[in-house]
Each structure stands twice: as C-alpha cells, then as structure tokens.
Amino acid sequence: MVFAGAIKLNKRGYALAALLILLFIYYIQVQYSHSDDINVSQLLKTAIIAANLGGKFVVNTKNHLSVHVKGKTKEGMDDSVTTADLLSHCVMKQLIERRLPNVKFISEEKEVDCEEDLSGTLMDPETSLTEDVAVRGSDVTIWIDPLDATHEYTEKLYEYVTTMVCVAVKGEPLIGVIYKPFSETTFWAVVGYGHSNNLKPKANNAKSDKTKIIVSRSHRGAIEKVLEENFKHTPYEMVIAAGAGYKALEVAEGSVDAYLHITAIKKWDICAGNAILKALGGKMTDKNGNSLTYFNETNVLNEHGLIATLNNHEQFVNKI
After folding, report:
1. Domain extents for the chain?
2. What is the pTM of this model?
3. Distance between CA 145 and CA 89 in Å, rounded?
4. Is there a contact between 167 and 140 (Cβ–Cβ < 8 Å)?
5. Under a CB-based contact definition with an 8 Å cutoff, are residues 148 and 58 in contact?
6. Hey, which end of the chain has fewer CB within 10 Å, N or C?
7. Strand 258-261 to strand 283-285: parallel, antiparallel, or no bridges (unpaired)?
8. What is the number of alpha carbons within 13 Å of residue 165 lying toward its C-beta?
9. CA distance 260 to 219
10. What is the DSSP pairing of strand 67-72 with strand 104-107?
11. CATH class of 37-195
C-alpha cells in the first residue's frame, strides 16, 4: 500500500520540533562533558586506602629487604630502592588504577613492572568530609611516593618513614594523605573542605624563644651555612630529620616553625605535604616564594628549594 500524502507542520509544530532538537543536543553535550567527573570524596577515600595499603607492605617487608642503589643524590648519599618501595608502588598503583581507571598518576618508582595483583578488596575508610563536589577526571593527576625516607628505612629509623598520596587538580594540590605505617597513623586534608582530626598543634608544644627550623639529614652542612648567614639576628634552633612527609607534618602540627630545603627536590616528595599545609592555612613555596604546581609533566623536579610554614611565610622567604 502506498501513501501519497505528506505530514504538514504549522509554525507551532516547527517551533516545537526545533526546541526538542535543541534540548536533545544540549542533553548530549552535558552528558558528554561531565562523563569523567569524579567526586572529591571518592578521590580522598582512594588516596587514603592506597597510602595505608602501601604502608602495610612497607611494614611487612622490613625484615626481608633487598636493597639496590640507583645512584647518588646531589648531596652524595645513596639513592636506594628496596623491595618495600617496589611492592608499595605496585599495590598503590593497582588500587588507584582499579578505582580510578582514567586518572593520570605519577610515582617515584614508575619503571616497575607489576604483574601480580596485590591490591585485594578493601572497605572505604570513614572520613569527616561533610561536603562533596565533583572535579573533571581529565584535570586530575595523582602523585604517589610509595616509601618516603628509604635510606632511613634501611637504617631502621622507622619514625621518619611515610607513604604519601597527593591529588592535584589543574596542577593545584587539592588532597594530601600522609601515612605513618609504623604507628598506623593517617593524616589527610582537602583544601577548602576539611582535614583529619589529628591535624592540629600538639598539646605539649610550648612556645619557644627560638625559631625552630627543620632540615634534612642529607644536607645538614649546606643548610647550616645558609642559616648562619641569614639568621644572624634571629635566635633559631635547627631540627635535623629525614623524610619530606615527616618534616611537613612537623610543620602542620606546630612542632617547628618552618621546613627549609635549599636544593632540588622531587614533587612526589612534597605534593601531599603541600596540600595539607594549604588546607590548614599554611604555605609551601620554593625558596623564592613562588607557588609549586603539580601538572602531569615530564619534569618532576622542583629545582629551587623549599620553604614550608603555617605562619609568617614571607619572613622566611625574605631571609633565604
């Protein structure tokens, strides 16, 4: 049977059809443009689980170490990698890739082949994050340090050892997680949204007449000369410690006034601490006072030193 007629639309019909087409196009564009959105709460929980899981491997491997020296640091110390570094990297990598398959991430141990799935199934941790927002997945880069203070780990100086995860959005640090595996303590913060309850000044911190400055064991001599020259008229106490994560937490807890580092430092060492201090109202910059960024970039080195404080940041920038 053949129909010779045609459907005719009046002006109102044309207008309605055009409106429906525009609404359909808008719907498709909105759906497509937000298809990779990720909730900040999901990013935070993944970061906490990854840091904790990596830390468990760090603790469990401490008596079964194989140590390989990758080279020398600029300060002349061995740049070591251990079995624990590699296992922690693999489990953190697998966990992040499973939960956030489309997110870019950068690790200190990026050259490692991870064949066996070590990540298992874990429950989401409880957090006190009361608000939630979404960020574009394509804007996110996750930085991980599977074992900070490796040299001290091999010397059994476990108090300095941490595992760290940082979430940067458009290069800006948003989430920082630092886990102390040997005390099973997790510190986290989300810039603008909150932080873990244990991120507060220690109750027994008495105000000292001296400015406390924490510096690295690895280049104590170099920083001593800088402090002697630039703090001639300011009484100060130099605190020697290891691990960028440990030192950032000492600033966050108010145990010291500043963390200074005058040589180059890798961004996976500092991103989590940067996010935590920023969330607490503090600052972390290079030694010239410039903000640090964490894009998915080829150059992972911050070449211009580091100043981290909770208060009076410019005072330290002006002195270094």
Report:
1. 37-195, 211-319
2. 0.85
3. 8
4. yes
5. no
6. N
7. unpaired
8. 33
9. 11
10. unpaired
11. alpha beta
Which residues contribute to the annotated binding site?
108, 145, 147-148, 269
CATH code matching the domain that covers 211-319, chosen among 3.40.250.10, 3.30.10.20, 3.30.310.10, 3.40.190.80: 3.40.190.80
b/e map 137-161, b = 16+ CB within 10 Å: bebbbbbbbbbbbbbbbeeeebebb
Q: Return binding residues for Mg(2+).
A: 108, 145, 147-148, 269
Q: Per this entry, what is the length of the chain?
A: 320
| b/e code 97-129 from CB counts within 10 Å (16+ = b) | eebbeebebbbbbeeeebeeebbeeeeeeebeb
Question: What would the two tokens of residue 89 be?
Answer: 């990297």
Tens-digit pLDDT string for the chain (320 aa): 444 555 555 667 667 767 777 776 666 555 545 578 999 999 999 999 999 999 999 999 999 878 766 655 555 555 678 999 999 999 999 999 999 999 999 998 876 778 777 766 566 776 767 678 999 999 999 999 999 999 999 999 999 999 999 999 999 999 999 999 999 999 999 999 999 999 987 655 556 789 999 999 987 778 888 999 999 889 999 999 999 999 999 999 999 999 999 999 999 999 999 999 999 999 999 999 999 999 977 789 999 999 999 999 999 999 88
